[in-house]
Amino acid sequence: MNKDKISELFYYYSEGDGFNEFLEFDRVENKVSQCHDLHAFILFEKLGVCRYDEIVSAAEHDIIYLSVDTDKFAEVATPELILELSRCGIMYDDIEDVFTMYA
């Protein structure tokens, strides 16, 4: 999947017509954690897309920046995966090319 499509889907779920799915963690099936943030972090780790040995790369005000290789993510991304991550509160900043979430 290309980054434009990734950006489009994340926007749809975090700000667009699909906003009713954003942070609806109770709709996630096969949870690997009961915490929405940990579930997302574990998904990124299982996908092998983490850049470093830490998932959180920075924090500013109320936003956390995640250390995820967006090029590797694009290779494995599916609409279902993006929906699941959106339900965990993950967002994609296409200007900075980084995954974020609210603190």
Task: Give helix and strand order, one letter per element, not per position.
Answer: HHEEHHEE
In which range does the helix fraction lie? 25-40%
Our count of helices gives 4
For the record, give the distance between the C-alpha atoms at the N and C termini, rounded to a whole number.
Answer: 28 Å
What is the structural class?
alpha+beta
The tally of domains stands at: 1
- What is the percentage of strand-forming residues? 15-25%
Radius of gyration: 12 Å
Description:
The chain has 103 residues and is α+β, with helices and mostly antiparallel strands. The chain has one domain (3-95). It has four helices and four strands; from the N terminus they run H-H-E-E-H-H-E-E. The chain has a four-stranded antiparallel beta sheet with strand order 1-2-4-3. A hairpin with a 2-residue loop joins strand 1 (56-60) and strand 2 (63-66). Helix 1 (3-14) packs parallel to helix 4. The protein is globular and about 30 Å long.
Please render the helix and strand layout as text.
Elements: H1 3-14, H2 36-47, E1 56-60, E2 63-66, H3 70-76, H4 79-87, E3 91-93, E4 98-102
Antiparallel strand pairs: 1-2, 2-4, 3-4
Quick summary:
This protein is 39% helix and 17% strand. The chain is an alpha+beta fold and 103 residues long.
Main traits of this protein?
103 residues; alpha+beta; four-stranded antiparallel sheet; globular
